[in-house]
Amino acid sequence: MLHILGAGSIGLLWAARLQRAGFPVQLILRNAERLAAWQDHAGQLELTDTSQQQHVSLTLNAQLPENPEPIHFLLVTTKAFAAETAVRSIRHRLSPDAEVLLLQNGMGCQQAISRQLPQHRVYYASVTDGAWRPSAHQLIWAGHGQTLIGDPRQGPPPEWLTDWQAHGLTLDWHADIMAVLWRKLAVNCAINPLTVLLDCTNGELLQLAHGRMEELSQELQLLLSAFGIPISLDILRTQLDQVIRQTAANSSSMRQDIHAGRRTEIDFMLGFALRSADQLNLAVPALRKLHTELQTYLATHGLPLD
Ligand code: KPL
Are residues 151 and 232 in the same domain? Predict the structure, then answer.
């Protein structure tokens, strides 16, 4: 049994993908109210895969963190700011050999969870799928992305990965997952806040924010290099350009959060980048200015600043 902690877009997407591939899954919902709402709909999820033009209806089982069932494999799919507390709520249920896979955006919460679970093997993942929920029981898989998984302690790939791949799940092992997460962080720091401040799609940034993105890319390249992630400015620029073009019609996750009145992951993107720069006394004025502007924007919209 695979337990999935967090039933947002990524949690439901993974629950649906794993269950359709033949694996038994169990969602863990935050509280009794959410569980009751889920059960009122008989655990039904309507999944629309837009790129495959497919529509499927499936039933997903759900339970509460208090359920006594032991957990042998846990996927953590909450937002970054909720991950640490969510893991603490089920920690007592993890079997001694339980493995944990973290699928959060940004950085910071992964390291905190690894510290919380020193005796378990904890994998980190980078996910670029585009998915959103028109309602709690509907999921639109708008863009098939890439999922890279790795072990921050650089251990070998686990056997379950081959099994998942053999069942048709598209995901790959990466020997240096920290480098993958840092590069994804750079992409998120350059794209997400600007799409909020300019209220535009990812693609529109090419016309609206070219100069600012260049400034940010230079600082992000310095930051990544300072943390031992080898990436040239040209490669970073190319990666940013590719992501923007591949996700041109997307609204970034941060812009979606704000439009829905939800807390953003600013602290796990720009916040983490600034704290990292501070650790090394690295000057990153463009990133700092962006962070301040974004916080001002959040304040005027009555949203948390972190
Ligand atoms: O990861 C993303 C996000 O929106 O958080 C990108 C890659 C920018 C795609 O929208």
Answer: no
Q: What share of the chain is helix, strand, coil (3-state, %, to 5)?
A: 45, 20, 35
Average pLDDT over all residues of the chain: 96
137, 174, 184, 212: the active-site residue? 184
Residues 165, 48 share a domain = yes
Can you tell me whether residue 70 is helix, strand or coil? coil
Shared domain check, 194 and 159 = no
The verdict on 197 and 86 lying in the same domain is: no
- Using a 6 Å cutoff on CB, does residue 35 contact ligand 1? no
Asked if 289 is an active-site residue, the reply is: no
Instruction: Assess whether 221 and 103 both reside in one domain.
Output: no
Containing structural domain, residue 65? 2-175
> Does residue 224 sit in the same domain as residue 159?
no
Residue 127's DSSP bridge partners are 147
pTM across the whole model: 0.95
What percent of the chain is predicted at pLDDT more than 90?
Answer: 91
Q: Kindly give the distance from the C-alpha atom of residue 69 to the centroid of ligand 1, in angstroms, as a whole number.
A: 35
Helices (H), 198-264: 205-208, 210-226, 233-246, 253-259
281-297: per-residue pLDDT in tens? 999 999 999 999 999 99
Token pair of 256 as six digits: 């979606």
What spacing in Å lies between the alpha carbon of 16 and ligand 1's midpoint? 21
Domain CATH for 195: 1.10.1040.10
